[in-house]
């Protein structure tokens, strides 16, 4: 704490606030039997701005292991991208499940 003494003898203290970086959140895409692999790649390229080879790799991870990390972002960005992906999937009739998970 920083201390400062006024002319009348009063001591003023000021707490120093610690600023933390915002926590990061993973946006996960989950596998289902209806959403096409091509559409998952499209989502990864358009919403998450992944280059084609990386989008293909993530899509295969979703397909093989049941879920894959589309990206890691601060909460507000992650939530926005999740909603964009959901809205695009819904507009095309796909039940793509997207979730958020805190980065460990």
Describe it.
This protein is α+β, with helices and mostly antiparallel strands and 104 residues long. It has one domain (20-102): Ribosomal Protein L30, Chain: A, CATH 3.30.1390. 39% of the residues lie in helices and 28% in strands. The protein is built from 3 helices and 5 strands. The protein has helices at residues 37-46, 52-65, 75-91, and strands at residues 2-5, 11-14, 24-30, 67-74, 97-102. The strands form 2 sheets. It has a 3-stranded antiparallel beta sheet. A two-stranded antiparallel ribbon has the order 1-2. Strand 1 (2-5) and strand 2 form a beta hairpin. The protein is rod-shaped and about 75 Å long.
Enumerate the strands of the largest sheet in spatial order, edge to edge or round the barrel: 4-3-5
Number of strands: 5
Structural class: alpha+beta
Cα separation of the termini = 31 Å
SSE order = EEEHHEHE
What overall geometry do the principal axes of the alpha carbons give? rod-shaped
Overall radius of gyration: 22 Å
* CATH H-level superfamily title: Ribosomal protein L7/L12, C-terminal domain/Adaptor protein ClpS
CATH class: Alpha Beta
What number is the mean pLDDT? 91
CATH architecture: 2-Layer Sandwich
CATH topology: Ribosomal Protein L30, Chain: A
Unreliable segments (pLDDT under 50, ≥5 consecutive)?
A: none
Helical content stands at 25-40%
């Amino acid at each position: 704490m920083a201390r400062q003494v006024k002319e009348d003898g009063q001591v003023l203290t000021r707490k120093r606030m610690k600023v933390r970086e915002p926590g990061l959140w993973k946006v996960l895409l989950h596998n289902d039997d209806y959403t096409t692999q091509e559409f998952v790649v499209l989502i990864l390229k358009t919403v998450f701005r992944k280059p084609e080879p990386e989008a293909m790799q993530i899509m295969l991870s979703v397909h093989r292991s049941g879920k894959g990390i589309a990206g890691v972002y601060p909460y507000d960005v992650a939530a926005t991208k999740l909603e964009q992906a959901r809205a695009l999937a819904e507009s095309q009739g796909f039940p793509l499940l997207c979730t958020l998970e805190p980065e460990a």
